[in-house]
Amino acid sequence: EVQLVESGGGLVQPGGSLRLSCAASGFTFSSYWMHWVRQGPGKGLVWVSRISDESSTTYADSVKGRFTIYRDNAKNTLYLQMNSLRAEDTGVYYCASEPTHTGYYYMDVWGKGTTVTVS
Amino acid sequence: EIVLTQFPGTLSLSPGEGATLSCRASQSVSSKYVAWYQQKPGQAPRLLIFGSSNRATGIPDRFSGSGSGTDFTLTISSLEPEDFAVYYCQQYGSSPPNTFGQGTRLEIK
């Protein structure tokens, strides 16, 4: 079964740090691009960051310089290191996979999310 | 940055009725780069449509997508009780590489 499981969320004070993890199973993790998407309380989806299969990274302006996305293909795990956290970073963080070489761009599998509260 | 605007914000319909959800981009987007997702309360988003009109695996054929340029549409032909949810469109661009619309809430009338 294709699955993504996030962990690492919690309560942190403003200015603090957290590291989120996303464990992948059931597919060839190393071949996929991976994303982090967040959702504030009662709000819509906001894309946060992306890492390619070759570890090229891109970030939303709102997190650039504070968050770092990286992956460990040997452990089939995606990470998001979040530093200098702000109240507006509060929300549910989802990891999602993007298949490559299809000619299309979309996130086909999503984890259930992990909750980050900055307060 | 390409901005996606979804309308209506809320759509109130009854089971059995058809639904049309719209997504307008602030500038032209390749139809290959538009996707639609469904999200139910307390759940993760689920991919419905990719490439504007291709149903994802396991998605019933009452869901269909269309559009080009700046205007894209998700159509649900006959609403089932489980279809009442929030729907998001998403586009892949250059900077930032992904943006979502603000969502359309489909509620039971």
Describe the structure.
The complex is a heterodimer of chains A (119) and B (109). By secondary structure, chain A is mostly beta strands. Chain A is 0% helix and 50% strand. Chain A has strands at residues 3-7, 10-12, 18-25, 33-39, 45-51, 57-59, 67-72, 77-82, 91-98, 109-110, 114-118. The termini of chain A are far apart. With 109 residues, chain B is mostly beta strands. In chain B, a hairpin with a 5-residue loop joins β8 (86-92) and β9. The termini of chain B are far apart. The model of chain B has no long low-confidence stretch (mean pLDDT 95). Chain A binds chain B through residues 35, 37, 44-47, 50, 58, 60-61, 94, 96, 103-113, and chain B through 32-33, 35, 37, 39, 43-47, 50-51, 54, 56, 88, 90, 92, 96-103.
Notable characteristics:
heterodimer, A: 119 residues, mainly beta, seven-stranded mixed beta sheet, four-stranded antiparallel beta sheet, 0% helix, globular, B: 109 residues, three-stranded antiparallel beta sheet, 10 strands
Number of strands of chain A: 11
Question: In percent terms, what proportion of residues of chain A is strand?
Answer: over 45%
Report the total helices of chain A: 0
Structural class by sheet pairing and helices of chain A:
mainly beta
The separation of the N and C termini of chain B measures: 36 Å
Shape of chain B: globular
Listing every helix as H and every strand as E from the N terminus to the C terminus, the arrangement of chain B reads: EEEEEEEEEE
Largest sheet of chain B: 7 strands, mixed
Mean pLDDT of chain A: 96
In DSSP terms (H or I, runs of 4 or more residues), the helix count of chain B works out at 0
Helix content of chain A: under 10%
**Rounded Rg of chain A:** 14 Å
Number of strands of chain B: 10
> If you average the pLDDT of chain B, what whole number results?
95
Question: Between the first and last Cα atoms of chain A, what is the distance in angstroms?
Answer: 36 Å
Give helix % range of chain B.
under 10%
> What's the helix-strand series of chain A?
EEEEEEEEEEE
Shape of chain A: globular
Of all chain pairs, the largest interface belongs to: A-B, 23 and 25 residues
